[in-house]
Amino acid sequence: MPPFIEAKPKDETLWRAVILFGRNVASYKFALGKALLDLANDQKSFVKLEDLAEPYSKYLCEHLSKNDKQGTFQRSRFLDACREFNLGKISKSDLIEKTVQLGFNNVIDAFHIVNRGEIPKRFFIDQRKGKKGILITDDLARLKEKKQFLNFPFELEARWRLVETAWSLNLNPNLLVVSVDSDRNLLFIQNEATRRIDITSSRDSLDGYQKGHCFYCFKEIVINSSDPNQMADVDHFFPHILIKYLPAITAINFNGIWNLVLSCRNCNRGERGKSTRVPELYLLERLYNRNEFLIESHHPLRETLMK
Is the pTM for the entire model greater than 0.85? Predict the structure, then answer.
């Protein structure tokens, strides 16, 4: 099987396709995705719009409180209602009513569309015309059984943060040039006023594009854990030690996204791990394919990778 590409995508791969791929003009898909992950935990089969509206609007309000730009459009009556709630001008019940009325107009129809086509499985079925809600499918319920389910909220949040940062700077998300703080495993940008803006974790932003697996051995990895020994390492594919062998004029950013992969601790630090050794040639081809995969996906890191 070609690395990072599946001929017959698994359920978790289809979920990642919805959240991590495609062009974004608003953040509604991310908020709905987070609400659906909550519902997968609740194990409900049918969800009324009023019940869906509560977590959906909550996540949008949380992001609006930190970043007011949540789309490429000029105005949104629904987002205005969320802003009014954040300012204490309307009650929670008023917000839920506005969300049911305005908040789902396009996102429910568009959620399963990736690259202008619908994915082969659906995580919910639209029943707004009859029962005024959505029907949760077995495909969403099965996601909870996957080990990767624990990584999904962090991957989703990372994508959301990258996209809204570009919007807030009035940039096309594909023109967002991102730098890496290797010591803190953080992605950040430097704006025109040379002020650093921290965006998200390197682990969270890269994991979905490795499908939650170690770059080297394909063992499943965890990107957030109370036990540091269980968490994936952010590894420099080409080790820093190479710098001293290069001419001083060579301008290679070893801390760039292009050179970062997620690895299980055994492959990175174990007795037979890569450590500071130069990887074998077949792994270089795998790195190339991973980076091309990210670029082709219209990821907000696209421009950074191309540079």
Answer: yes
